[in-house]
Amino acid sequence: MREPGLPSLDQLRVFIAVIDHGGFAHAARALHRTQSVISYTIANLEEQLNIALLDRGKRRVTLTEAGKALLADARAVSARVDGMRARARALGAGLEAEICLVVDVMFPMCRLVMLLESFQREYPTVALRLHTEALGGVAQMVLDSRCQLGVSGMPVHLPDNIDRQLAGHVTMMPVCAPFHPLARYEGVVPTAALREHLQLVLTDRSPLTAGQDFGVLGLRDWRLADLHSKHALLRGGLGWGSMPEAMISEDLGSGRLVRLNLQDGAALQYPLFVIHRADNQLGPAGRWLKEQILALDYALPHGAY
């Protein structure tokens, strides 16, 4: 048996049209061609592939077993070409091929999912790279031009070429496990008592925040680079620390964690800033993403994580 030839994109699309429109005549009308041209194109495709795709012995044209298998391939090829053409049109109009977004680990994941679902619908041809970093790590990636857009947490000293806008605040709560000694305090927990117990603190490797402490009260602390590790250690009773409300709302509801009422308050507002390099202007997709982040409602209901 000879090797199959190389079918053309037009042949594959005619093959798909015959199946989707229910026959040669309907496909001809849909494609604005004569029925004889459609029939000839399918015959040539079968000749190219050296296999029968359609069963013409019945009143209605049906797929052979080989045709069923190859129809999926034809659809995949057609879709990939359509995608390539759409991307080429977008690139020609100035749309970015790819967006790199870096967000602070405190950014509520439920809001991020909703945001990126909308982004996918709005810009289906734009590839996305997503990073999560702590403290100065977000700003560092934007400064180094590794990401076009960032959502940074606690403000750090940034050069003038970084554009920064306040997007909103995330509620942070100091918590511990119910069997931790600090959980015995019914009212305000004295700062002296906090200092006696291990504090779990989020840190990062960015030089922008090297040597800086944010909300560190304990005389003993463990520095953790991963928020989920901190979450697990808090639930295990190894120490106390602050966590974003959205991430621990279920733990508070079930009693796996309890809130601590500190002298400075039972919660604090952690700011989130949208940042990007002013000397590297955002394209249409980047501008849309920035506007959506600024418009987000960060006041989350309990259990929203």
TrEMBL record:
GO molecular function terms attached to this record: DNA-binding transcription factor activity; transcription cis-regulatory region binding
This protein's UniProt keywords: DNA-binding, Transcription, Transcription regulation
InterPro entries tied to this protein: LysR_HTH_N (IPR000847), LysR_subst-bd (IPR005119), WH-like_DNA-bd_sf (IPR036388), WH_DNA-bd_sf (IPR036390)
Coiled-coil stretches noted in the UniProt entry, renumbered to this chain: none
Family per record: Belongs to the LysR transcriptional regulatory family.
Superkingdom of the source species: Bacteria
Protein name stated in the entry: LysR family transcriptional regulator
Residues covered by the HTH lysR-type domain: 7-64
